[in-house]
Structure formats: structure tokens, C-alpha cells
Amino acid sequence: MGLKAALQKLDTAVKDLTSLHVQTFSGELSITLSSDKGYDTLRAEMKKAIKDGNLTLVAETLAQFDGDSYNFVKQDLSDIPTLALEVHKNAVEAGIETRLGLLGLFKGLIK
Predict the structure, then answer these.
(1) Which uninterrupted H or E stretch holds 5?
(2) Is 11 contained in some domain?
(3) Which pTM value belongs to this model?
(4) Is there a domain that residue 42 lies in?
(5) Tell me, what DSSP letter sits at residue 56?
(6) pLDDT-derived band of residue 16, with 50, 70 and 90 as boundaries?
(7) Between the CA of residue 69 and those of 20, 61, 62, 63, 72, what are the distances in Å?
(8) Fewer CB within 10 Å: C terminus or N terminus of the chain?
(9) Does the residue 3 lie in any domain?
(10) Residue 52: which of 25, 81, 85 has the closest Cα?
(11) Cα dist. 78→14, 55, 74, 75, 84 in Å?
């Protein structure tokens, strides 16, 4: 890998660390994951299920490093399990904690 490619990968990694995007869906999805069918397969199946109307976006959070954020919660939550919002909240908290930990690791490496 050349220097230019390495710098581009580093730039992508830094951008990923400086933002957090969490989407929580509710609905029906049936998929069997295996060693040859991982996250990319799940993502493709979710996109298809959304297009087909089998999944509904319940909540979405986009948080930027500078403190800007975008939050969405479905207006009618009567048909959404309470667990879905709890899962969303936990995913956001875990994402923040992971990014803070990684940033602390990088900070320690730079010193």
C-alpha cells in the first residue's frame, strides 16, 4: 500500500470516529448469517426489507464530533415495542463510549 492510500484509509477512519450514526428499525426480517454471510449481507437484506415495507424506521441519531446532532423518533410509537427505543438508546451510548475509548487510545499513542 502506498503512502497516498494509507493516508486515505486513515482519513476515512478518523471521519468514522468523529461521527456516530445509529438507526433502529422494527418489523419482520428473516436471515441466516454464517461465516460467509456477514454484516454486508445483513445490510443488503435490511435495505430490501425496507424497500418492501417489512421494516420501519423507529429512531435515528446522527451525532457529530463538534456536538451537532440530528435525532428522529417515529411520531406514532403505539405499535413499537418499548424495547426498540431502549435498544436504540443503548446503541448510541455504546457507540459514544467506543469512540471515546478509541480516541483516548490514539491520544496515548501520539504522546
Answers:
(1) helix 3-17
(2) no
(3) 0.71
(4) yes
(5) E
(6) low
(7) 9, 7, 5, 4, 10
(8) C
(9) no
(10) 25
(11) 39, 16, 10, 9, 12
